[in-house]
Amino acid sequence: xxxxxxxxxxxxxxxxxxxxxxxxxxxxxxxxxxxxxxxxxxxxxxxxxxxxxxxxxxxxxxxxxxxxxxxxxxxxxxxxxxxxxxxxxxxxxxxxxxxxxxxxxxxxxxxxxxxxxxxxxxxxxxxxxxxxxxxxxxxxxxxxxxxxxxxxxxxxxxxxxxxxxxxxxxxxxxxxxxxxxxxxxxxxxxxxxxxxxxxxxxxxxxxxxxxxxxxxxxxxxxxxxxxxxxxxxxxxxxxxxxxxxxxxxxxxxxxxxxxxxxxxxxxxxxxxxxxxxxxxxxxxxxxxxxxxxxxxxxxxxxxxxxxxxxxxxxxxxxxxxxxxxxxxxxxxxxxxxxxxxxxxxxxxxxxxxxxxxxxxxxxxxxxxxxxxxxxxxxxxxxxxxxxxxxxxxxxxxxxxxxxxxxxxxxxxxxxxxxx
Length: 419
Known about the structure:
Strand content: 25-35%
Mean pLDDT: 80
Largest sheet: 9 strands, mixed, barrel
Order of helices and strands: EHHEEEEHHEEEEEHHHHEEEEEEEE
């Protein structure tokens, strides 16, 4: 088996650390009645060691270890109070109060992965949002709009191949805490076997409506709402433009497959999932098992769909909609054909050395098709193992990523071919 090495150009402010011998779980949570006293102790003069605050009766030993890890392994470097843990897989979601920031408002923290503790806001922070159509639209209406820096896990998805995707939302307002929301930012944090393998910022979207309004607009076959909700739930559907193109349909079918629904254009069966506005960290019932190879593709999945119940209940279908790709391990790159020169797009056959085809869990180059079977290392330096099934194997394929839709290979810059 050969190695596929990825050296990323992103520099994160957070430090990484080896996972503590013991992770953090619900038994390490500080009882709610002890939180106010702890918060006061942790904001006392610096002469008082923060570890002394955790010596009181009824405070778990794991709470002290967690606070030490937050001081040692995060960019903020402040002690913290563990107020909750929800177990999800190799990486779990915790909530923590950082008294020097706020004595009562919890921060989302990812725990038990390769980096030990990761404050979600530190992972997703960017000085400027990506200039997507949604971001530009909100800024055109409200030039002073900005994210509140109150990152929260709004959705969770188990990816093909067993990776974990935490979907982070932050409210966009006119730079004030009590202003009405102008929109919501969406960022994906992707992990595989506890290691961060991808950070993708999707930009800003209009505010998320109440569940009842989402359901009503989907019943009326509002494609824009469908696209927004797919993006916001961890299924990248492309721009919110009201046109059900290939990205929208691929995301729509992926969502249906994860929830054990037929691969057909009917929208109504999936409305309850799309209308849910709280994160479920148990994962969808028919998603891949975490970190395990997915089952072989089911030929019946591509069978002709049954007739739609009503025209308004159907997502419009292009005549050439492709079947969804089957993946072993998700890649930290958008699916598509990458070319070193735009004139080479589209890549018919992908036989040229200046063309690389990438689907979720697959790499095709020079006419060879390789399955990605493992990702090791830690963001931003990753090593991806390929099984090319050629007997003699292939040469290592080394790239330097420039983003989720571009990389450098053998001195050539590759960019994603757009339809």
